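Sorry to interrupt, but I need a hand with the structure work. I would like you to pick a protein and set down its sequence and fold. Please put the record directly below this note.
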Amino acid sequence: MSTETYLNHPDFGLLFRICLVDGDKELFTTLYAQRLFFLAKVDRAAGLLFDPIGRTEARMMLETRLRILRQAGQYNEFEHLNKVYKRTFQ
């Protein structure tokens, strides 16, 4: 079963969650164009923060996450994220 996560950005509309980057950071992209990327972080004091990042930086974060999953032996999640990678960046 695949769970998809969406967030509503105040300026850019619906964002699609690509992957978890760190314990408290997640990578999101605009749902339709998938050209704008955001790093979303939950801050207890400020709430949900969106940091825009470039396409190259987003690609590097996703490639790092794929390496971590492959090394950890989490092949199902790796295959799913690899499909997302190919659809988004190739």
